[in-house]
Amino acid sequence: VLCVTVALLLASGGAIPPPEEAARMARFVLHNCDWGALATLSVQEGLRGQPFANIFSVSDGPPGPLGGSGVPYLYLTDMEISVQDLEINSNASLTVSLAQTPYCKKHKYDPQNPLCAHIIFCGSIVKVNDSEAGLAKKALFSRHPEMESWPKDHNWFFAKFNITNIWVLDYFGGLKIVTPEEYYSVKP
After folding, report:
1. pLDDT recorded at residue 9
2. For 57-89, how does the pLDDT look when each residue is reduced to its tens digit (9 = 90+)?
3. Could you tell me the residue ranges of all domains in the chain?
4. CA-based angle 168:92:184, to the nearest 5?
5. Cα(70)–Cα(31) distance, rounded to whole angstroms?
6. Buried b (16+ CB within 10 A) or exposed e, 11-45
7. What is the mean pLDDT of the chain?
8. CATH superfamily of the 22-185 domain
9. Strand partners, 175
10. DSSP string covering 29-98
11. Are 98 and 114 in contact (CB under 8 A)?
């Protein structure tokens, strides 16, 4: 029974961090989520200058408790409308939530309940350089293998979310602010 319990914890990315460890919580939630809502300022006709949210697959590394770098990687094409927004203004926010994992349903938490932790990252989207492309590819394709077969003529590229601000909502009492330095200095 102990081996099964340990295996289940490892498969799910480990136990959820306590609320007083906001930086670890941010890393944990990102690492256990496969997608997020990316908000940009639209450049589309009729929406120009308005907030626009879209779903994107993300990954900070291969699944498992030791696989996460904390860097949200994305696989993008200039054909995508949100990427067109980012070409004009690279600033964005990215929200990830444990609502997409079994955790919140298991505990009967509504996605809006603070105990169903969600993290809001603010920053900008940047293309990764050649030296980081291998890490981004491994992170994304290990979780999203379908990406490898996406049409080559779409000119896909690897990008990352360059984090400047982090807000954690994982308990009652309001948001917690985590600096990028705090975030990257802990393990999920």
Report:
1. 41
2. 999 999 988 779 999 999 999 999 999 999 999
3. 22-185
4. 45
5. 7
6. ebbbebbebebbbbbbbbbbbbbebbebbbbbbee
7. 92
8. Electron Transport, Fmn-binding Protein; Chain A (2.30.110.10)
9. none
10. HHHH-SEEEEEEE--STTTTTSEEEEEEE-BSSSSSTT---S--EEEE-TTSHHHHHHHH--EEEEEEEG
11. no
